[in-house]
Amino acid sequence: MKAGKGLRGTARRASLLPARYGLTPDKLRTRIRAMTADLSRWEATPTVPVTANALDRHPEIAGDLVGCDSAIHGYRHVRYAGLSEAAQSHDLDLASRAFRNHQVPVQGFRAPYLAADATTRALLKSRGFAYDSSSPSMALPTDHPAAGEIVRLAEARYGDVPSGPARPTLEGGLVELPVALPDDEILIDGLGIDNEEGLGRIFQAMLRPALDAGALLVLQIHPERFHLCSKAIEGVLRSATDGGAWIAPLSEIASHVRASPSGWPAGHAMALAVTGDLDAVSLLDFARRVWEG
């Protein structure tokens, strides 16, 4: 069973929310557009898994997502793992309906809190999803000076996390694209690293083993924090490009894996995706989440 974030971690995260969100959607909308514009300089399209009730409450963000590769992040931001099949099915179908209503195309799914289980994956297969990206994987080498604390924080959030370069898997038509850790929550909220040099060193350390192994590196940077990571991400994209990486959104990576489960297109050395979960759009969304339980 995956661990929770803990009372202390939850309290700290809540104290940081005003820096991430405003009372209106304006701050978040600006940051989504900035993220897309920054990545477009590298011909990179971000994959943004979106909690669908935020889309229902703020339909204007559908326009901001036009330059993104969107995915479903549940209807409500709740752990799927452990919920009954009926409860998971209800939430997933509500989310799919919301995306259709707002004409936002999606092919994939990422579970809130990366908490999916076998029931989740069976439902995704039955609904025809192309991929799931809910499995955490520790991409930082174990001999890195910060590895011990990062692993501790990852286990507090997600339970036991496999370590080493990650590869996509294909089962029953569903592609699994693991999420690389540490993510921005661990680095910025957990360790307090919010400078481009420190973040850049971590991202570069995550990249090197993936390049050497010809693996997949799925970075996770929430859109509201992307401005803190943009220079570090630019550096890792430069290094990845120089190393022959294929930089693509999750939907394109999944499409390739379904067609050709081994190797990367055009002789690329590895695949890299930049993703960022859109959990909420304003501070009021968090208040509603607490109210709704």
Detail the topology: elements first, then pairings.
Elements: H1 7-20, H2 26-40, E1 47-50, H3 52-57, H4 61-64, E2 69-72, H5 85-101, E3 108-109, H6 118-126, E4 131-132, E5 136-138, H7 147-158, E6 169-171, E7 174-176, E8 179-181, H8 184-190, H9 196-213, E9 216-220, H10 226-242, E10 245-247, H11 250-259, E11 270-275, H12 283-292
Parallel strand pairs: 1-2, 3-4, 4-7, 5-8, 9-11, 10-11
Antiparallel strand pairs: 6-7
Helix residue percentage: 40-55%
Mean pLDDT: 92
Using only CA atoms, what is the Rg? Answer: 18 Å
Unreliable sequence segments? 1-7
- How many structural domains are formed by the residues? 1
Reading the helices and strands in chain order gives HHEHHEHEHEEHEEEHHEHEHEH
Give the second-level CATH assignment, the architecture. Answer: Alpha-Beta Barrel
Structural class, from secondary structure content?
alpha/beta
Overall number of strands? 11
Distance between the termini: 20 Å
Q: Bin the strand percentage.
A: 5-15%
Order of strands, main sheet, comes to 3-4-7-6
The rough form would be described as globular
Biggest sheet, in brief?
Answer: 4 strands, mixed
**CATH topological fold name:** TIM Barrel
What is the name of the CATH class? Alpha Beta
The CATH homologous superfamily corresponds to: Glycoside hydrolase/deacetylase
Number of helices: 12
